[in-house]
Amino acid sequence: MSNIQKIDRRNFVKLFGLASGGIILGCTATTVEKKFKPAIDSDFFEPNLFVQIDTSGTVTLIASRSEMGQGIRTSLASAIADELEADWQYVKVKQATGHEKYGNQNTDGSRSVRTRLEPMRKMGAAAKMMLISAAAQKWKIAEKDCKAENHFIVNTLNNDKLFYGDLVALASELEVPNQTKIELKKVADFKYIGKTLKSVDLKEFTTGTATYGIDIRIPNMQFAAVARCPVAFGSVKSFKKNKAAQVSGVSQIIELQRLTPPIGKFFGMLGGVAVVANTTWAAFQGKLALDIDWNLGENVSFDTEKFKQTLTERVRKRGKLVPGGNGNVNSAFKQANQIVEATYHVPFLAHAPMEVPNATAWFQKDKIEVWAPVQDPQTARSELAHFFEIPIENITIHVTFLGGGFGRKSKSDFVVEAVAISKKINAPVQVVWTREDDIQHSFYHATSAQYLKGSLDKQGNVTGWLQRVGFPSIVSSFKPLSDYASGFELGQGFTKPIYQLPNFRLENVKAEANLRIGWLRSVVHIHSGFGNNSFVDELAYAAKKDPVQFHLDLLKKETNNVKLAPLQYNSNRMMDVLNQTAKMANWGKKLPKNHGLGVAIHYSFYSYVATIVEVSVIDKKVKLENVFTTIDCGLALNKDNIKNQLEGATMFGMSLAMHGKISTKDGAVEQHNFFDYQMARMQDAPNINIHIMDKMHEPPTGVGEPGVPVMAPAICNAIFNATGQRVRSLPLTDVGFL
Amino acid sequence: MNINISINGKPHTINTQEDTPLLWVIRDIVGLTGTKFGCGVSQCGACSVLLDGKLTKSCSVPVSYALDKQVFTIEGSSKNLEILRQTWSENNVPQCGYCQSGQLIAATALLDTITNPTDQDIDKAMSGNICRCGTYTRIKKAIHQAVALKNKADE
Ligand code: FES
Ligand code: FES
After folding, report:
1. Which ligand has the shortest distance to the CA of B98?
2. Disulfide engineering: A550 pairs with which of A75, A172, A341, A545, CB 3.0-4.6 Å?
3. Inter-chain touch B136–A198, beta carbons under 8 Å
4. What is the pTM of this model?
5. Under a CB-based contact definition with an 8 Å cutoff, are residues A338 and A445 in contact?
6. What range does the domain containing A237 cover?
7. How far apart, in whole angstroms, are the C-alpha atoms of residue A492 and residue A453?
């Protein structure tokens, strides 16, 4: 991290349009450790985090991440506010536009808090020191006789107080303290970090005034809807516009060519026919009235039912060996007392964020301005520069609130569409996807098949574990013909099992992509979490052992004298979360008739999660009664937000386990809207009990995603416990449950 | 054609087809964007408004249906809605926030009609509103708290 520096006011005003004045600090934070120092002079300074304290006392944090419900704005603001000794009611957050000046803005991998926390704290601390110096100068006393307290500097000699807002003019003239002199607070002194904090956006959220992408309104703006080929990557052969043109409000109908990005970059857009109109509704109606003859292309024969069979056959045969195994599974199987085999299946899934994909764009000769709910504004920006041949510095992306993202909005195809249409009609335009568009043209979470074979010795210990997996790779969306899951994908819960397995072998089988594949909340961990936890439960049953104890026995105890790196996997922490969850759930308690308990544990995004689900199953109707979840996510920045995230993950995981399935027939997605791609609702919500481990001295780790992978296996294991029926293929509604 | 409707007590004269869904009139013509689009087919409740006090999915009724009726949206204010806003905030309910306009309107309709709703009443009243972020347990808690606050104020 480079030094914290003062920001030139004129630049600041230019960048953010905020009133100038007061203290403005900036610093550079990188998400990746730089191996090589760039060959630039030491004055080079490209800040990407900013904080301003103005004369009204308002503290504004410029957030460099997209807000999408994970409360990141609030969490990061709390870090500054804490070190600054700010009064929470003066804290505001402003969203940065997409520009490399603000650092890597891609919101994924649950990384945001992990990489931003320390720079945020340091900026808060530096500003506080400047305010203290200013007060000391005013009072003509020593700095050590001043202290910061709730937005005031207090003279400890006589208890006089000066408000931050009244000090900033003087403070802004001072030098920023040397990096080495910045002292951070002790954990015990935290006022906001690790405490329950209200979202900084509550007022907007409860009054309908938060501006999401779909709420952007600019003068002379048109609305557009796009008809895309029902089969992935098909194209327009011909179309008739007369009927659509007659729809009241429709002004133009234009063809959009598919834009294919260079290999390894971006996502492009599907193309199709766009209907431009004066309201969203007129555009939707016009789109429905189009008469298009499609070139369906080669994916027309893609049928998910058949593909499931194909993948199942492939995982039953030998696949490509994935390096990193140990021992020799074959000899373990030969000497086994018992062999257990199972094949698991997860279907394609769509994100279905409540706010459909949408973007507003204004293409003007040599510049592009975009307003959109994007998770990754910088990639969107480079993508636009590439396709529209506009210098990247002339492209501005205003990141709006995101009405949910879950990974969908990190692919900016909808932004490219808006810009392409704006260019053609020479006016600002908002593209809005219908829910049907969203369900049928997503970047889907891949389907998977897994075959597991395990061996047990006489004592019921696991001696061998063979796992074969096959799922279409996300890489296929960047690079055609990527027919095997990639290393980074297998790294999500497959290559390095958290269990102690004396003989372990992982194989990868071919899985071609016939739909656009993307990442969805917790990504490949959905597959690995489901396969691993279901299979451990099956092994425990075969070994006639208690599933919780069986998990614990499989985890390796770390001895105290082994020094682990801060983010290195630590089995003890996993055992702790499991024990804690078992205690909360009163594991082993006597259950009412038709009830069952199921357990699952998973390590993802450096966080440790254990979940126990209690279900009741009556006449095939599955009801989640109680869910108990413990997370160890290191330093818990904002506890209530973490709880909220895990409650949300519980419902997200439950939705996918119960209903989540995207299927195709003749290449086209069969689901349309929430009536056939269903979500859990109020009446389905269980009692959710979340416990957050107290790990204030560990670095913070992911919270948005790690609660998802445990849900499906815990539910299925609970159903087995209640009914004796093993579910190996999701979703539950597909195998007769309701 | 010209259509007269009243939104949150304010009259509007709108030039549109009478079969345009109320949602799009509110959002794209009147310009109140607090009422959201989620599905367009009466499945998610993001577009919830009150029509003469009755909970209505505005994506699925034509604007003509609102003639001579009072439309109440999230931009409006009522005693029950204000109490709900308060308990929504106290429980830090919203995540992405997108569904919450509709959730608050549905909860307002519930409080307007049932004095002491049970869990089952809440399940039923809120069953038309999807929250993809999964804030259901908090919504339920916030509704119970709002009822308690209201009863205390009425004592
Ligand atoms: S948008 Fe009206 S119910 Fe979904
Ligand atoms: S808060 Fe995001 S959909 Fe409800």
Report:
1. 2
2. A545
3. no
4. 0.90
5. no
6. 217-298+357-432
7. 20
